[in-house]
Amino acid sequence: MKWQQPGPTERLGRIPREQRQQRHRDIVQAAADELVDRGYEGLTMARVASRSRASKETLYSWFGDKDGLLQAVIAAQAEQVTHLLSPLTEQPVPAAAEVRDALHAVGEALLEVFTAEVPITMCRVAATSPSLSRRLREDGHLRALPMVVGYFTRLAQAGVLHLPDPAEAVSVFYGLVFRETLLGRLLGDEQPSAESRSRHVAAGVDAFLRLTEA
């Protein structure tokens, strides 16, 4: 019987789990970098393979096509949202005197994660793709929303803030803290500096607290 070279799936199966996970992260990061550098039209499986030092057959085996690769980028961004927000929204309810600082930390995390280069570029790409747009909503803003709503609900239940409708309060908070900056980024503004973001969030938090005074 003639010997045949193992196919890509067979070869990948022998890669240790940790090495496979790291390879996956490297490919997804390379795809994100290519997307920012070249845009959707310039992003190709060949360029991502070259940048990540992986084979094209590995990319096609793991991700299927370019849109599948972009969905993996969105999923990685969703993990970042969870990583940044979880410690802030799961912390014990702060005392009334500390609530401003707590809200400021949440606002800065939201502004940072949603106005960075990769999320902004993904938003522009998703505007032309219904499937990517749906995935971006599910794993982007909608991933963060229940985390923040849950936190605001606990603040209201503890009497720290007067919030008859925590979900509506989060919508107001979003608008005051980062919606204007997000719109500017989508229209081509540069990423604001850390100091600028902090000032913008501080002003938004102060306005939010004035609106929610009992």
Secondary-structure element series: HHHHHHHHHHH
Second-tier CATH architecture of the largest domain: Orthogonal Bundle
Total domains: 2
CATH topology descriptor of the largest domain: Tetracycline Repressor, domain 2
Could you give the count of β-strands? Answer: 0
Region (Disordered): 1-22
Biased composition (Basic and acidic residues): 11-22
GO molecular function, one term: transcription cis-regulatory region binding
Domain HTH tetR-type: 21-81
Can you characterise this structure?
With 214 residues, this protein is mainly α. It is 77% helix and 0% strand. It is built from 11 helices and no strands. The radius of gyration is 21 Å and the shape is elongated.
Produce a short descriptive summary:
With 214 residues, the protein is mainly α. The chain has eleven helices and no strands. 77% of the residues lie in helices and 0% in strands.
